[in-house]
Every structure is written in structure tokens, then in C-alpha cells.
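Progress report, Aim 2. The chain analyzed during this reporting quarter is listed below.
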Amino acid sequence: MRIRWFGQSAYLLTGEQRVFVDPFGDMSAAASRGLEFRYPAIEGVEADLLLVTHEHGDHNGVEAIGGEPVVLRSRAGTFDSPVGEVVAVASEHDDRAGTARGGNTIVVFTLDGLRVCHLGDFGQPALRPEQREAIGAVDVLFVPAGGGPTVGGAEAAALVRELAPLLVVPMHYRTEAVNFLEPPDAFLDALGMPVERVAGSEVETGDVMRAEPVVALFQPPM
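Predicted C-alpha cells for the chain:
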């Protein structure tokens, strides 16, 4: 499976099928609130399955993705899809039962024999038991690491330890393109796991996965 990072929480996973998760749209309006968002626009990308974890502009730019993907958008449940079963687990974008930033959907699916979990903008202090049970086993985990509107630091590290994936992909953190999140350093320090620093913004999982768990830290696309 090939993973390509477009910035923030947007990823294209390519294997037997193409899965895109959380594309961002036009974020130019963020500047009026003093927020920088300077990742390159998502262009020329097609997918077979398009997943949206919640309805914020940096996650729900479905118009950016071409082809004729099946779209599963911001709702919990168990769904059939081009990659088989997708489990979408209801969660919150904050630590106030969703009253501050609304809901978030954790998406779990299998691609090329790897069980993938994308946490979206998970903001709860921890998983509830029923959420953990619904997620099940995880091979590849995409976890927000920049704090602010999501978990970060020690809370994000605790999530990784609980879910016990073989490959951890931090996302949604401060880079040269965004100024409103924290860098991943506190998360990496709290986790204490070996880090594979990817030379670019995409990689084959077979090139970074090992017998023991590892973090893949991508270079931001600029």
C-alpha cells in the first residue's frame, strides 16, 4: 500500500483500490481569522472510495477528488464499499461531548491486507470502551498530533499505545504551511517509539514497516 500525504489530515492510500480520506477544499478564507493554511491544492487525484470524518473545511473538500468514488461522509455505521466493510465510529471533536466543535467519525477499513484506522479530528481525552471495541485490531494508525482542536502530546501517545498499531502516521500538526497547531515533537517524545523520517510526502508501507512498531514522519508537501 502506498501512502501519500497532501497536508493536514488528507491522505491518498493506493493499493488494490484507491482510498482518499479527508481532502481539504479552498482554505483562503482562513486568512481572515489569522490562520495560515498554505498546503498546495489537491488536484488531479481520483479515488474509488472517499471518506470524510467531519464537516470542517480542511477535511470535507470532496469536490477536489475526481473519478466516481463511493462517498461515505461524516456518519457512523458499518458500510459496504469498494474495499469491503468500512466501520465508521462516532466520536467527538472536543473534550466536551461535542458541544464545542461537534462530532467526528473514526474510520476503519482494510486495504491490501492492512487494517487502517484514521482518527480524523479526535478530541476526546480517551477512547470509550465501546469505541475501542468497534475499532478492533489496527495495523496502520493515522493520529492527530498537533493538539489545539484535537488530542496531541501525551493524549495522542496514549491512544497509540492503546490501539497498538505496527505503523503510526502523525497528522494534523504544525508545519511551514499551518500556524494554528503545535509541532509533533511533544507527541513523539511522549510516545518514545522509533521514528522513520520519510524523505518526501509519500511512501510504500513495506519500506517503513518493521517487525516492531514504528512512526513514519512525512515531509509536508509544499
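The chain has one domain: 2-217. The radius of gyration is 16 Å. These observations will guide the mutagenesis work planned for the next reporting period.
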